């Protein structure tokens, strides 16, 4: 089977693979219609942390967090190629209590780069971090917090295009997300940052900031239902102990879902994108985004304003229940077939991927803008549920193309082709080497995998 340009359909920003489940609820008597809880498991707030840069003290901050029941995300650069084993990203994200987020390849001031360089900095960083951790990365912190430039509106436009084409759907900068005309409505989420202090803990100021959120809750919730601490993991010695004291008090300061930003982003997106349709008595159809596209497999929480619920199953799998304040929270897990990748890799210069022996991928972009992505399945088993996503340079439209590849048989070779069509002119948009990336999601022997291939074109 040979793919053609016509096979690649435009993928709208925020659009995902969706699938259906059937939830069956057993109850003592009739139930009111359920709603989707704003926060996982019906908690009042998400509570997370955000720590930037590859600082070695991140390891100590993580330990202090876990000692005090606090979780969160470390936003890392990827300046050098690294082995996964022994890497900071792998250490910080081990066991899933914390995760990593994107912070660009080399920590530049993005407004000083061309659109092509900006795109490379964001997307290549996400790919590097996913390969190091074998976990999807869905959240970004801009280096120096810079995503726009005075009197140059094209910078916010290009940075937004680069963000969306990278596949991020969460950003720690609420100023980037709220009121940004270049982001489609409802596609990108954010949080409410409170700062305990990077070099010295200013506890009084910190609790005052939290108190303000609580006092003006309705206003703040228009931005997010997630509060997070930041910004740098620099606290050592006695300052780290003080940070630990703040965290110990914070743990039960409110009814928190302690989460990573990755989990928060995935929950917030599925809350927005899921449809629940009542069926025959006690059953509900659920149409929701796939976990591997959300970036995390946190269950979806349905709320019934009743305590009559006795049990619930989704496609035969039991759901966890929590009852509080006269309500029942039903946590609906994702179907295993739409779960997370077990391994994530990038094809090397020779096309081979160490984690998927026999699977080859190549990607090329010629000076005329012709893009060819070729996959060769020498793994000895069929690859199913294939999904190829191509991200194009910011000067081009559309920004994302997607091909469905239901089965790539053992020994089969498949190519997808596309043309990069620049619609934005000028040195800012077209200067520097254009960069393209292909993401191939697939299932082999019942296990989900993800393989990236990347390529540079030539500068005009
Ligand atoms: Zn930084």
Quick structural summary:
The protein has helices at 58-67, 88-93, 115-133, 153-166, 174-177, 203-215, 217-221, 237-250, 261-273, 291-294, 427-430, and strands at residues 9-10, 18-27, 35-36, 45-52, 72-76, 98-102, 139-140, 170-171, 192-194, 226-229, 256-258, 275-278, 283-289, 300-304, 309-314, 317-318, 320-324, 327-332, 343-346, 359-365, 370-377, 383-391, 400-408, 413-419, 435-444, 447-456.
Q: Which helices and strands occur, and which strands form pairs?
A:
Elements: E1 9-10, E2 18-27, E3 35-36, E4 45-52, H1 58-67, E5 72-76, H2 88-93, E6 98-102, H3 115-133, E7 139-140, H4 153-166, E8 170-171, H5 174-177, E9 192-194, H6 203-215, H7 217-221, E10 226-229, H8 237-250, E11 256-258, H9 261-273, E12 275-278, E13 283-289, H10 291-294, E14 300-304, E15 309-314, E16 317-318, E17 320-324, E18 327-332, E19 343-346, E20 359-365, E21 370-377, E22 383-391, E23 400-408, E24 413-419, H11 427-430, E25 435-444, E26 447-456
Parallel strand pairs: 4-5, 4-10, 4-11, 5-6, 7-8, 9-10, 19-26
Antiparallel strand pairs: 1-23, 2-13, 2-15, 3-14, 12-13, 14-18, 15-16, 17-18, 20-21, 21-24, 22-23, 22-25, 25-26
Helix pairs in contact: 1-8, 3-4
Residues 52-53, 103, 107, 143 line the site of zinc ion (ZN).
């Amino acid at each position: 089977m040979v793919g053609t340009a016509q096979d690649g359909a435009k993928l709208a920003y925020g659009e995902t693979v969706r699938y259906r489940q059937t939830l069956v609820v057993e109850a003592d008597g009739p139930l009111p219609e359920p709603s989707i809880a704003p926060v996982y498991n019906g908690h009042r707030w998400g509570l997370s942390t955000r720590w930037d840069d590859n600082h070695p003290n991140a390891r100590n901050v993580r330990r202090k967090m876990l000692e005090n029941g606090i979780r969160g995300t470390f936003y890392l650069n990827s300046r050098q190629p690294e082995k996964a084993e022994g890497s900071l990203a792998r250490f910080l994200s081990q066991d899933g209590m914390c995760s990593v987020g994107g912070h660009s390849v080399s920590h530049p001031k993005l407004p000083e780069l061309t659109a092509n360089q900006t795109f490379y900095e964001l997307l290549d960083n996400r790919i590097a971090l996913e390969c190091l951790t074998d976990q999807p990365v869905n959240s970004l912190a801009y280096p120096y917090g810079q995503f726009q430039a005075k009197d140059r509106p094209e910078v916010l436009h290009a940075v937004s295009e680069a963000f969306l084409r990278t596949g991020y759907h969460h950003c720690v900068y609420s100023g980037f997300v709220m009121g940004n005309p270049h982001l489609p409505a409802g596609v990108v989420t954010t949080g409410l940052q409170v700062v305990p202090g990077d070099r010295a803990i200013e506890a009084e100021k910190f609790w005052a900031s939290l108190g303000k959120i609580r006092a003006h809750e309705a206003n703040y919730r228009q931005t997010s239902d997630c509060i997070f601490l930041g910004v740098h993991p620099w606290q050592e010695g006695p300052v780290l102990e003080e940070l630990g004291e703040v965290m110990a008090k914070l743990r039960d300061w409110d009814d928190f879902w302690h989460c990573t930003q990755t989990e928060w982003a995935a929950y917030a997106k599925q809350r927005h994108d899921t449809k629940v349709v009542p069926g025959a008595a006690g059953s509900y159809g659920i149409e929701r985004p796939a976990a591997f596209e959300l970036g995390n497999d946190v269950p979806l929480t349905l709320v019934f304003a009743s305590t009559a619920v006795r049990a619930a199953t989704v496609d035969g799998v039991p759901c966890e229940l929590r009852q509080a304040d006269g309500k029942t929270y039903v946590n609906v897990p994702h179907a295993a077939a739409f779960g997370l990748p077990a391994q994530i890799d990038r094809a090397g210069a020779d096309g081979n991927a160490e984690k998927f022996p026999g699977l080859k991928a190549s990607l090329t972009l010629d000076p005329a803008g012709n893009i060819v992505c070729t996959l060769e399945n020498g793994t000895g088993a069929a690859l199913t549920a294939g999904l190829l996503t191509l991200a194009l340079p910011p000067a081009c439209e559309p920004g994302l193309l997607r091909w469905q590849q239901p089965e790539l048989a053992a020994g089969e070779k498949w190519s997808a082709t596309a043309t990069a069509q620049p619609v934005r002119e000028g040195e800012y948009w077209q200067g520097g080497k254009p960069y393209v990336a292909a993401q191939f999601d697939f299932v082999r022997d019942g296990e989900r995998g993800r393989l990236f291939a990347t390529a540079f074109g030539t500068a005009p």
